[in-house]
Amino acid sequence: MQTEDVKLVIVGSLGIDTIETPVTRREDVLGGSLTYACAAASFFVRTGMVGVVGTDFPEAFMAVYDHFGIDREGLQQVEGKTFRWSGVYEADMINRRTLATELNVFESFNPALPPRYRGAPYLMLGNIAPELQLRVLEQMDAPRFVLADTMDLWINIAREPLMEVIGRVDMLTLNDTEARLLTGEVNAVRAARSLLEAGPRYIALKKGEHGAMLFSREGTAIIPAYPLEAFEDPTGAGDTFAGGFMGALAGRDELGLGPIRDALLVGSTVAAFGVERFSLERLQELERREIMARLDELRSMVSHAQGA
Amino acid sequence: MQTEDVKLVIVGSLGIDTIETPVTRREDVLGGSLTYACAAASFFVRTGMVGVVGTDFPEAFMAVYDHFGIDREGLQQVEGKTFRWSGVYEADMINRRTLATELNVFESFNPALPPRYRGAPYLMLGNIAPELQLRVLEQMDAPRFVLADTMDLWINIAREPLMEVIGRVDMLTLNDTEARLLTGEVNAVRAARSLLEAGPRYIALKKGEHGAMLFSREGTAIIPAYPLEAFEDPTGAGDTFAGGFMGALAGRDELGLGPIRDALLVGSTVAAFGVERFSLERLQELERREIMARLDELRSMVSHAQGA
Predict the structure, then answer these.
(1) pTM of the predicted structure, to 2 decimals
(2) Which of B6, B34, B163, B237 has a beta carbon 3.0–4.6 Å from B51's, enabling a disulfide?
(3) Measured between beta carbons, which residues in chain A are less than 8 angstroms from residue B299?
(4) pLDDT 10s digits, A1-40
């Protein structure tokens, strides 16, 4: 499998998570933005991961990546402990508090791309320090489409390199609060539109259980979220959304507003599966035909035909 | 105008509001659930209002109703002061605190329908005490479609009559929190679906700036909200949404999932205009062709054609 052409490269964090919800607590489960993004993308395209784990990273977790057919040549395993995160969800299952973050081997992570990744046409800069995102971007030949994800932490402590990233990518994903924090605009719609001036052709505003919005000079699109009657673990939903989007886009390999809207709908659908169970449990048993069926259902929920 | 057939009857509160936002403060503006709902409905159908005001109610406010062509035969003006509400919006312009509520003449309101209202085919029971909603319902001959709106207050203090209302209407509108409070379900989607068992054929879950969702045995629909870059006053948005919906539905006079979805999209569109300015200021200068243009725009924002 390692020699198959990688069409999509993703960089991000790999970690071991401990997650508490009002219902249950799960220790030492597979997590990290890169894990969720690669798993989601792998339904649609051969994806290469760029990340780091420690020597404590279980073989069983490596086997999960192999289950998804993720290319692991860009995964470094170095002396030390893997990045660890633990958090607790409130009663609404949406708001959460971080209990602990241990960077461990992630602290000295220096992403190095395998030569065969460099010509990949699609690149996703997952949620890591903007300096590292830039280092990955600089190792790529000339990707057709680059997505960057970010979070409030980097807006607060690394605004300058983050703005450089934003100036060099095709699309930026962030949530309402982050868009407002980044721009100083009170209104998230205005904030997102103003970010188009900073460089990216597309801004995807993530709204959690309410879906997402796409802003571009070509038009605005509302991306619905699939309505779930129950879910166990929202961890990684944003990464799954972005990864599913990039996978679908790279798999189709066609740019423009139409394909991008379509791929965002796919990302939203995969993300809704991901949260149904803890960690990657649901994605591991998910089949592509289930994604397609739910995608059709979601599409029909928002297709309001004129005079229908 | 008073003799034109009334196709839609709406009952609710009429009031004089004082509203504070982070930006400004407006004293003694026209408000109340009935005011917003009737104004929104009047773009599409002849609407009769059932409500009460005091002798202090300004003639200028009556002139606003006349501007919209609202039928005022069901509007009682009685000795005393009009219902008053004041509230303050937080920095997000969404969360708000009530500063004061004075029921005044509303306390002894006994809705009496003019005989020519009783045969109207559409009825909206706006947000008032469920006992009053029932009293209005009982005066109607045999409406084709009845919508009831409610709020947390009635769920807390008048659950029994509220459940009777719910058992006798075609559609119930409420927000996420209210649906969870009413059913005891943690998940709003499950809460809404479970309310279908209580009687209504349709449940519309209002999600504020995120739009709404429609649940029915015939299917689920996601109703988007028009993305606004700025708005001045979200007061009455839910009433405008419900009123615009009922007006559009009554104007078309056709039932079923398709027409109902379509009318909900109209309601969402009118509500997005309403919040742009204080009180009814924006609705007063709104033209039907503006609604139709924005409706087309909103529809295109969510129409994700397969493989588009």
Answers:
(1) 0.94
(2) B34
(3) 304, 306
(4) 446 799 999 999 999 999 999 999 999 999 999 999 999 9
3-state secondary structure of B288: helix
Of residues A190, A211, A296, nearest to B230 (C-beta): A190
| Sole residue written with tokens 């489960």 | A29
Q: What is the DSSP letter of A6?
A: P
CA–CA separation, B228 and A301 (whole Å): 22
The mean pLDDT of chain B is 95
Read off the pLDDT of each residue in B280-289 and give the average, rounded to a whole number.
97
Q: Which of B189, B211, B304 sits opposite A299 (nearest CB)?
A: B304
Looking at residue B289, the DSSP 8-state letter turns out to be H
pLDDT tens digit sequence for B23-74: 999 999 999 999 999 999 999 999 999 999 999 999 999 999 999 999 999 9
B224 touches A: beta carbon within 8 Å:
yes
Do the chains contact at B224 and A221, CB–CB below 8 Å? Answer: no
A59 in contact with B, Cβ within 8 Å? no
Whether B230 has its CB under 8 Å from any CB of chain A: the answer is: yes
Q: What is the DSSP string of A87-119?
A: EEE-TTSS-EEEEEEE-GGGGG------GGGTT
Q: Which residues of B touch A186 (CB under 8 A)?
A: 91, 93
Please give the biggest Cα pair distance in chain B.
64
Give the start-end residues of each E strand in B111-253: 122-125, 145-149, 171-175, 202-206, 212-216, 219-223
Q: Does B256 touch chain A (CB under 8 A)?
A: no
CA dist., res. A241 & res. A236, Å (int): 9
- CB-CB neighbors (< 8 A) of A223 in chain B: 304
Distance from CA of A245 to the nearest CA of B (A): 14
Any residues with CB less than 8 A from the CB of B71 and at least 6 apart, and which? Answer: B1, B2, B4, B6, B46, B47, B48, B49
ipTM: 0.90
